[in-house]
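Appendix B, record 7
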Amino acid sequence: MATNNDKIQFRGEAEKEATQVVDQMRLGGINISELARQGLREKLREALSDEEKITLHQRYKQGDISEDVAEILLDDGLEEIERERNAFEEASELDTTGVFQE
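C-alpha cells (predicted):
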C-alpha cells in the first residue's frame, strides 16, 4: 500500500530520452514534472470503472478523501455525479400518488 512518503518511480529510459529530445527542441524547454503530473492524472481517471467512481464520490462525501484527491480522480465527473445525485433525489421526492402503469 502506498504511503505519503512513497516516491512514484518507474523505469522509462525511452520516455526520458523522448522528453530530452522535446526539451532540447523548445526554446524554454519543457516542464517534465508538470507533464508527468498531468499524464498520471489522466491515466488514473481512465483506469477507474464507473463503480469505482461512484465509490470514490461516496468516500469524498463522507470525508474519507479530500476534495483535491476527488478532483484529481473524478475531475468533471465529480460535478456530473453530484448533478445526477441531486436529480435522483428530486425525482424520488415527487408525489407519485395516482400515478400507475397498466
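Remarks on this record: The two ends are 54 Å apart (CA to CA). The longest helix spans residues 76-92.
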